[in-house]
Here is the input.
Amino acid sequence: MIITAVDVVRVAVPAYDPPFDWRYGLPGSEPAADGAWLLIRTDAGITGLSFALRGAMLQDVVDRRLRAELVGQDPLAREYLWHRVWEVDRIDRFPVFVQGIVDVALWDIAGKAVELPVYQLLGSFRESIPAYASTVTFGSIEEYLDVADQCLELGYPAIKLHAWGDARKDARLSTALREHVGDDIPLMYDGSAGFDLLDATYLGHALSDAGYLWYEEPMKEFSVTAYKWLGERVAVPLIVAEVAEGVHMKTADFIASGCAAAVRTSTGLRGGFTGAMRTAHLADSFLLRAEVHGPGIASRHLCMSISNTTYYESLIDSNPVRRPADVDDSGYVHAPTLPCVGFEETWTEGAPAELVAALTD
Ligand SMILES: [Mg+2]
Here is the structure.
């Protein structure tokens, strides 16, 4: 099989509905955007798909660099092409999503070629997994406790807080939530890089006292040393390397520092399925968990294929709480069924018109 063309199909993406907030200082839900589908076409008549929310950026790197790297190559040579994208990155300094978007489309081709879901090509470990309720930021402790009650009622077995990014307020919230739900519900906290070492340490002590399962990204992930020091100061397990660039190589540095109780992995921030699985296997070699970042069809494949993972992240974006359609009433997410990545499964209102036109060209 040979790649014959690489196209970018720009699409308008409406603003996220309902809009929501992250912590103080971070923009909240995505505004209306210029997205794009990446189409990698082959001489076998199979077209691999992948999606980016940054259409103009994708168009630019495809037109200047990636089309020339991909056309004429074997789309099953994923390892080779993954390294080619890394090689070109040295001169182009790609946005982090670019490494993953090519790889996801290549796995989509592979799935379509042999008519198997990607998680089965990666090697399946399970057919379903529990989802944790991953909150956006709500207005008060009372509202969080109400949201938590709704999540538990809807079947979620665990809850992760995104909160205000104020160490004292977030500590009070974390403690109140533990007292509210009791000792048996796993709780996690995600700081979205909001703190320096002093505040991260203060909050970490509160999370330790409240028995939180993990403490995620309290600080910017540029300094491995700061995380090493935080790990020496607090007892709560740190889960690290969600956004730090350099995929498995940077994750390895976090692990080597001794700070990691677990690591994050994803197609979007860890170089597609290929980089995400490398990261998971790296963690596994140290008996560390690799927990999958973010919801979506690609994350569902990863959750079914990574042995050392325990949850799917399900975003709770509103109050009243809406349980997304991919989570069942027992709080479980199930394996994708389409013989590919399966973006098609997520088009509840049909495929985008621009994409239909491009696919029937
Ligand atoms: Mg996170």
About this structure: The chain is about 40% helix and 20% strand. Residues 190, 216-217, 242, 293 surround magnesium ion (CB under 6 Å). Residues 3-116+347-359 form a domain with the Enolase-like; domain 1 fold (CATH 3.30.390.10).
